[in-house]
Design a protein that fits this description.
With 458 residues, this protein is α+β, with helices and mostly antiparallel strands. It folds into 2 domains: 95-268, Alpha-Beta Complex (Cathepsin B, Chain A); 271-451, Cathepsin B, Chain A. 43% of the residues lie in helices and 15% in strands. The strands form 2 sheets. Strands 1, 4, 5, 6, 7, 8, 9, 10, 11, 12, 13 and 14 form a 12-stranded mixed sheet that branches. Strands 2-3 form a two-stranded antiparallel sheet. The relative contact order is 0.15.
């Protein structure tokens, strides 16, 4: 043991002794390594006068070569808008159910309330944060888990399991029942205030626990904090209804009145197999072994809810399953690194959209695994996967998202992405297990590998 420690110490000293500062010799080497020719002068003139590197790196050779036509497409209608919020996971999850709602109600003019679920999401996340603080009160303030909790008590972001936890507990309502508010559309200020109150409340709970205060009194203090959270949410978002009356016109032009509760309405929409046992989150994560199930600790919003669990699969398996789902007219919750190589105006995602290397004369060459591990790439946005175009051999060449950035974004609210972009920047999918291969279904029975709260997929 002592020899091992001594060896590690010597290696550390050895490495440090060879560390290189930016001294005069190094700076001279850097200067002489950059020989400015006429092309560089022109580039410097362009780039110092234009902050938009992406615009200048646009690859004109691929412009117009990807169309928005698809051989297979799920019949969906209507583009939603999450505005300045991080609720894409909620919008996408509800967009999955919207065709079912329109069919059941026999109307084309139906949309869900996202504000309703957002209220409960913020309240539940607040409760979970405070419970986590109580549970870790015996740990040091700089403990890694405690640091993660305090770094972001609540936030807009999430994945499909958060929607499932909320909908199963609180149900859903039509948009007219609880419309968007200015704070559900622009969440930054409200969330900042919530986090300040929660951090203060969490710190107070830790101080009380350190003094030996009983659990009953800790819970009373927690309730006091939650009363403040509830108050802010009601003032900024409105108060969610326990039951509602919804009037609408059906396809026959008749006025219909629906009197029900949010939970009853939700249960009337979903199929009996709409559960995590049948709808599986699959992931392409090349940093970890395929055909294994992973669970991220504490990635949920309700204390009693399910964590984020995913089956890791290679892209070829995911594409086969996704194409089968689309052919069966079943859209999928998906998420990706949408900001990479996105031509927002054209609504095209293509790995060749922008050529930064040629513009700047540098090398940018990391594979998907390296990008994930170095935090250069990760899943950033959820959208509904609705279409696929294939070649003469029925092999995918491009796919389509239904986005939630409004109709003015992309191709009238939709985004087309090439199959090569799929390989590099697609991550999560929620899909019925009947579309998975036998090998993938078999892998679902394995015990999940638990990942920590600070995992890079969090």
């Amino acid at each position: 043991m002592k020899k091992t420690f001594l060896l590690c110490s010597l290696m550390a000293i050895s490495l440090f002794s060879y560390a290189q500062t930016l001294d005069a010799n190094v700076l001279q080497e850097l200067r002489t390594g950059f020989v400015k020719d006429s092309r560089d002068v022109a580039l410097q003139n362009v780039l110092t006068g234009d902050a938009n590197i992406t615009k200048n790196a646009k690859n004109r050779e691929v412009a117009g070569k990807t169309d928005h036509f698809f051989k297979y497409r799920v019949p969906v209608k209507g583009i939603t808008n999450q505005y300045s919020s991080g609720r894409c996971w909620m919008f996408t999850s509800l967009n999955v159910l919207r065709p079912e709602a329109r069919e059941m109600l026999q109307t084309d003019a139906f949309a869900f309330s996202h504000n309703y679920l957002y209220f409960w999401d913020m309240l539940e996340k607040s409760n979970l944060f405070l419970e986590n603080i109580i549970a870790t009160a015996h740990k040091d303030m700089d403990d890694r888990e405690v640091t993660v909790f305090f770094s972001s008590p609540v936030a807009d972001g999430g994945v499909w399991n958060l929607f499932y936890n909320l909908a199963e507990k609180y149900g859903v309502v039509p948009e007219q029942v609880m419309p968007e508010s200015e704070h559900s559309k622009n969440t930054r200020q409200m969330v900042s205030i919530l986090n300040e109150r929660l951090r203060g409340g969490g710190y107070a709970l830790r101080e009380m626990a350190a003094k030996g205060v009983r659990e009953k009194e800790l819970r009373e203090e927690k309730t006091t904090v939650l009363k403040d959270i509830y108050r802010v949410l009601v003032l900024c978002l409105g108060e969610p209804p326990a039951e509602f009356s919804y009037r609408y016109k059906n396809k026959q032009g008749e006025t219909v009145t629906l009197q029900t509760t949010p939970l009853e309405f939700y249960k009337s929409l979903v199929k009996s197999d709409y559960t995590p046992a049948d709808y599986i989150m699959i992931m392409n994560d090349p940093t970890r072994a395929y055909y294994r199930v992973y669970e991220i600790k504490n990635y949920r919003n309700t204390l009693e809810g399910i964590n984020w669990v995913y089956l890791n699969l290679p892209n070829d398996q995911i594409k086969q399953a996704a194409l089968a789902s689309i052919k069966d007219n079943e859209p999928m919750y998906t998420s990706c690194d949408v900001g990479k190589q996105m031509d927002r105006e054209a609504g095209i995602l293509d790995v060749n959209n922008y050529d930064y290397e040629s513009l700047l004369g540098i090398t940018l060459s990391m594979d998907k695994k390296a990008r994930i591990l170095t935090r250069q790439s990760g899943s950033a946005h959820a959208m509904l996967l609705i279409a696929c175009d294939t070649d003469e051999n029925d092999v995918p060449v491009k796919w389509e998202f239904e986005n939630s950035w409004g109709q003015a974004s992309g191709n009238k609210g939709y985004l087309t992405f090439t199959d090569t972009w799929f390989d590099e920047y697609m991550f999560r999918f929620v899909i019925h297990k009947k579309y998975l291969s036998p090998e993938a279904v078999k892998a679902l029975s394995s015990k999940p590998i638990l990942l920590p709260v600070w995992d890079y997929m969090f």
